[in-house]
Amino acid sequence: MRAPRPSPALIVASLALVVAGAQPVAAAVSALVPTNSVGTSQLKAGAVTTSKLHDGAVISRKITNGGVGLLDLAAGARPRPPKVYTVSDANSLALEATGLIASVVELDLPAGSWLVTAKTVASADATGAAADAVTCYLFAGETQLDSGSALMDVQSLIVQRYRIGIALSAVRTGSAHVEVRCGKTGNESVSAWVTNTALTAVRVTP
Fold first, then answer.
1. What average pLDDT score do residues 121-128 get?
2. What is the CATH number of domain 84-203?
3. N or C: lower Cβ tally within 10 Å for the chain?
4. In 18-92, which ranges are E strands?
């Protein structure tokens, strides 16, 4: 048998009863938490986390000066800048004609994985037909990591001054004493030197 449809008067009376019952609850909540009573001093550190923010809840127009910045919200995601060691020497270092290798610049590196780069400018006042060279080496301890040469292939009886750049690079894992060493080969009478030498190590892993 079909249930009788409630009358309009019964529906109105039921809604009035629900509203009347909700008013004391709303009043109690309002008494416990008045309007504008929750501020920054009531929020514990870390209370508002990413998981508690709905998508789109924090937008740019809701961020005021002195408030939560976009960089603050993403602070945990920002990578730390890499550790960098560098040393340079703009002075000229004369290279012995006997071919002895001289230390130019050096660094002590802590444990880690490092991209080590070096650069220098090799110069020589040369004459004659002999091919003279300045060679520089990148060392970690007594292990050679890289080398490069500047060839002064002179074909003139007039003294020529050469300036040639040399670049070195290697990846080194672990702690190490890294060093740039340079030497000269060829004609004993040729004056050769290096200048503007720089050695840089960048940590590539934490």
1. 76
2. 2.60.120.40
3. N
4. 84-89
**Which amino acid, residue 100?**
L
- Distance CA(78)–CA(72), nearest Å, equals 10
Find the Cα–Cα–Cα–Cα dihedral 192, 87, 79, 74, rounded to 10°: -120
Under a CB-based contact definition with an 8 Å cutoff, are residues 102 and 95 in contact? yes
Q: Where in the chain is the domain with CATH 2.60.120.40?
A: 84-203
**138 and 144 in contact (C-beta within 8 Å)?**
yes
The total of other beta-carbon atoms located within 10 Å of residue 9's CB is: 8
- Identify the pLDDT of residue 85: 92
- How would you class 55 by CB atoms within 10 Å of its CB: exposed for 0-12, middle for 13-18, buried for 19 or more? exposed
**Pairwise CA distance, residues 197 & 206, whole Å:** 28
Does pLDDT of 137 surpass 90? yes
Confidence of residue 140 (pLDDT cuts 50, 70, 90): very high
Alpha carbons 163 and 126: distance in angstroms, whole number? 11
Burial of 92-121, coded b for 16+ CB within 10 Å and e otherwise, reads ebebebeeeebebbebebeebebebbbbbb
**Tokens (6 digits) for 90:** 């703009």
Q: Is 159 helix (H, G, I), strand (E, B) or coil?
A: strand
- Contact at 8 Å (CB) between 180 and 167? no
